[in-house]
TrEMBL record:
This is Alpha/beta hydrolase family protein. Residues 5-224 form the AB hydrolase-1 domain. Pfam families: Abhydrolase_6. InterPro entries: AB_hydrolase_1, AB_hydrolase_fold, Sec-Metab_Biosynth_Hydrolase. The lineage of its organism: Bacteria, Bacillati, Actinomycetota, Actinomycetes, Kitasatosporales.
């Protein structure tokens, strides 16, 4: 059996994983989800503390494989726990991959995300350079009832400090890492991510169906990929 630590993206809400959790638990695995701090002063260290606290509260079995899963902005915070929790593998999902000393605020220009998003929009018949729209960019493939529930929740965002704090690790953790990328992600397009991940991690992305919020649009397919780590 495995223990899955599921780290959310920019909204910091454990709810993001609520459709994936039962897919893993019904197969006997332990699942840890966490609501990340929302205070403006909370930085990456506070995020890491919250993740570690959630793991300790869940009390995973000593002999269980620990699989750390990070969505989007979670790519900046999740790896920070690897010197505090005995992580066996990391699975990144549509994630931001940081460089040592890089802030999450700098990542966008450093990687060319805006140009990648614009090029993909134009290639798929949408307006290049259009302003971000949460329904168009994030929820375009999420079932309407799930999108409605998400939009009805109080709007939260990551603390400003998270985008200002340089990524503190000297290198990516020495932990086996996979990268799952939604082939229909409009925010971090597939070809853009292929280049970033190959350059920064030296690995190839594995494509999965779905857009940026794949845990909401294709939870069973995503869970099937995560179960390969058990």
């Amino acid at each position: 059996m495995a223990t899955y630590i599921l780290v959310p993206g920019a909204d910091g809400s454990a709810w993001y994983w609520h459709l994936v959790v039962p897919e893993l638990r019904e197969r006997g695995h332990t699942v840890v989800t966490v609501d990340l701090p929302g205070e403006d002063s909370a930085g990456l260290d506070a995020f890491a503390d919250a993740i570690v606290a959630a793991v300790h509260q869940a009390a995973p079995l000593p002999d269980a494989r620990i699989v750390l899963v990070a969505q989007s902005l979670g790519g900046f915070s999740a790896p920070l726990i690897c010197d505090r929790v005995p992580v066996d593998s990391i699975v990144l999902v549509n994630a931001m991959v940081p460089l040592p000393g890089e802030t999450a605020g700098e990542w966008w220009d450093n990687t060319g995300q805006a140009a990648g998003r614009s090029a993909y929009a134009e290639a798929t018949g949408r307006a290049a350079g259009a302003e971000f729209d949460i329904l168009t960019d994030f929820f375009h493939d999420v079932p309407p009832e799930v999108a409605k529930e998400a939009m009805a929740a109080p709007r939260t965002g990551p603390p400003a400090a998270v985008f200002a704090q340089p990524w503190p690790l000297a290198a990516w953790p020495r932990v086996p890492t996979r990268f799952l990328q939604g082939r229909d992600d409009r925010f971090f397009p597939l070809e853009f991510q292929r280049d970033v991940v190959r350059e920064r991690l030296g690995i190839d992305v594995e494509t999965v169906p779905g857009g940026h919020l794949v845990a909401l649009s294709r939870p069973r397919e995503l869970a099937a990929e995560l179960l390969k780590e058990a």
